[in-house]
Design goal:
155 residues, six-stranded antiparallel beta sheet, 30% helix
């Protein structure tokens, strides 16, 4: 684990460049504070059609072995230049949490996604696929879990 989270490592619309934009109940987007959102980067290469329980198990395995990088904010993640198209990122509010706590929370959320795979419940908040986006200054954006799952069905 490299040292990326204050000294350690480890929403939205269908597609967004910034997970700090949340959609309110009336459908309007509103900015939130990205400083409180930790971002867990899974350094893997995947695509929308490859979303399945096996991929989720792989993410869970990487979390179990701390084979991920944890960034304290979206800005730090972007500035690190470590994100590539096809990577998977999990963003979550992490005020006051250390790296181990962030990883544990993400492990539980991924485990619930695995268990709920066959259900049509809305879940997966915070899990994103990194996709190419030439309109974005840094060349990529996040595809939300729900949009990712919908694209998988269409392919």
């Amino acid at each position: 684990m490299s040292s990326l989270y204050p000294a350690q490592s480890a929403e939205q619309t269908a597609q967004t460049t910034n997970p700090a934009i949340q959609t309110s109940e009336d459908g309007k987007s509103k900015p939130t504070d990205t400083r409180e959102f930790a971002h867990v980067l899974f350094d893997i290469k995947t695509s929308p059609k490859k979303l399945n329980p096996i991929l989720l198990e792989s993410l869970h395995h990487r979390l179990h072995h701390s084979d991920v990088k944890v960034y304290p904010s979206f800005d730090v993640l972007r500035a690190a230049g470590a994100v590539k198209r096809g990577n998977v990122v999990f963003a979550l509010p992490a005020a006051g949490m250390n790296v181990d706590q962030v990883i544990m929370v993400v492990r539980l959320k991924v485990q619930h996604l695995i268990m709920d795979w066959d259900k049509d419940e809305l879940s997966g908040e915070g899990l994103y696929l990194v996709t190419e986006d030439k309109m974005c200054p840094w060349g990529w954006s996040f595809l939300s879990y729900q949009a990712w799952k919908e694209q998988r069905k269409r392919r």
